[in-house]
TrEMBL record:
This is Vanillate O-demethylase monooxygenase subunit. PANTHER family: 3-KETOSTEROID-9-ALPHA-MONOOXYGENASE, OXYGENASE COMPONENT (PTHR21266:SF60), IRON-SULFUR DOMAIN CONTAINING PROTEIN (PTHR21266). One of its GO terms (biological process) is methylation. Its EC number is 1.14.13.82. Keywords: 2Fe-2S, Iron, Iron-sulfur, Metal-binding, Methyltransferase, Monooxygenase, Oxidoreductase, Transferase. Pfam families: Rieske (PF00355), VanA_C (PF19112). It comes from Nocardiopsis sinuspersici. The lineage of its organism: Bacteria, Bacillati, Actinomycetota, Actinomycetes, Streptosporangiales. GO terms for molecular function: 2 iron, 2 sulfur cluster binding; metal ion binding; methyltransferase activity; vanillate monooxygenase activity. The keyword rRNA-binding does not apply. Residues 9-110 form the Rieske domain.
């Protein structure tokens, strides 16, 4: 598998998932407990009491403090232990690591890696997920497969024709060649497929009300490791953006995935669908939510199956790649070089590793 890319921001949850209940989620193999303070700030701490390892997520939140459910060790929002049972003095080393957190674009992002590198790394943006000009449906499906299988899946949408026929797949998706561009400096992989005259799949026919054939543009923008966006444009055949760059006669759907490894063999598959039409229309929202979730679950079934195949295969198995795979292969190369970079950084500065917020 592609190893984990550390020293990056990852989507840990939707903001709506984190409240005044302790919430556990494992990110890149690190068990983390989340909660919201009384003032509404998201706090993320290592989910393991410093004393006897009891999960803090199975403990009690009192005010802004977590009281361990095993022996009552009490932690503040910085992870510092402020009280231990049976003695006045709290050992100086009694603290759990705190994670840096940013809430943005409906997501809770968490920094995984060396604390002092977070500041210099901007949190990726997906502005349509928190924009009055869009209506959003969303979900998260757990995947029992390594994250790179999901990267492969999303970078090559020709699978829509076969795996998602009757939902979002039509013959034109697989038949239309793609163009791939790689921006090494900004670390973005772009994959585009513009279909000028295509069948309108039910996903778009029912949500837009378009009857007949469409121009359908798929412009993928993948920012490894976590953020994947599919800019989808649908319009009646022949309708193009205007010369001034505006595009009022087309329907725009921003499909956003956050790909967050849970463990080496499991992944949090966050999906959101933002549209700039039928704003606030609950019937359209219900249809798109149900339809997209079905599509995501079709992928989950396929990728869970692939994970089992990959786990059982002999070392050195060589798969065959063709033109449709150029985006996926570029993404893999980028992930590999980012992982290597992270390892080299960690070796250069071992003292910085594992530092916590104070
Ligand atoms: Fe899919």
């Amino acid at each position: 598998m592609t190893e984990f890319v550390r020293n990056q921001w990852y989507v840990a949850a939707y903001g709506t998932e984190i409240g005044r209940e302790l919430f556990a989620r494992t990110i890149l193999g690190e068990p983390i407990v989340f909660h919201r303070t009384e003032a509404g700030e998201v706090v993320a701490l290592a989910d393991r009491c410093v004393h006897r390892r009891y999960p803090l997520s199975e403990s009690r939140l009192e005010g802004d403090r977590i009281i361990c459910g095993y022996h009552g060790f009490t932690y503040d929002t910085s992870g510092r232990c402020v009280s231990v049972p049976g003695q006045k003095r709290v050992p100086r080393t009694a603290r759990v690591p705190a994670y840096r957190v940013v809430e943005q674009d409906s997501f809770v992002w968490v920094w995984i890696g060396e604390e002092d590198r977070a500041e210099a790394t901007p949190v990726p943006r997906a502005p349509w997920l928190d924009d009055d000009g869009y209506t959003v449906v969303r979900g998260m499906e757990p995947l029992a497969a390594r994250y790179d299988l999901l990267v492969d899946n999303l970078l090559d949408l020709s699978h829509e024709t076969y795996l998602h026929g009757g939902y979002i797949g039509t013959p034109e998706v697989a038949d239309t060649p793609i163009t791939t561009e790689v921006d090494e400096a900004e670390r973005v992989v772009y994959v585009s497929r513009h279909m000028d005259d295509a069948e309108c799949p039910p996903f778009y026919a029912r949500s837009t009300g378009i009857e007949g054939r469409i121009t359908r543009w798929q412009d993928i923008e993948y920012r490894p490791p976590c953020l994947y966006q599919l800019h989808s444009r649908i319009a009646p055949v022949g309708v193009l953006p205007r010369e001034d760059g505006t595009d009022p006669d087309a329907f725009h759907v921003e499909v956003v995935y956050a790909i967050t490894p849970e463990t080496e063999n499991s992944t949090h598959d966050f999906w959101s669908v933002a549209r700039d039409f039928a704003l606030g229309d609950e019937e359209v929202s219900a249809f798109l939510r149900e339809n997209n979730r079905t599509v995501v679950l079709q992928d989950v079934v396929a990728l869970d199956l692939l994970e089992k195949v990959v786990e059982q295969e002999a070392d050195g198995y060589q798969e065959l790649s063709v033109n449709i795979d150029t985006g996926g292969l570029a993404a893999r190369r980028m992930l590999r070089s980012m992982a290597e970079q992270g390892r080299a950084d960690a070796e250069r500065a071992p003292a910085a590793a594992g530092r916590v917020r104070s």
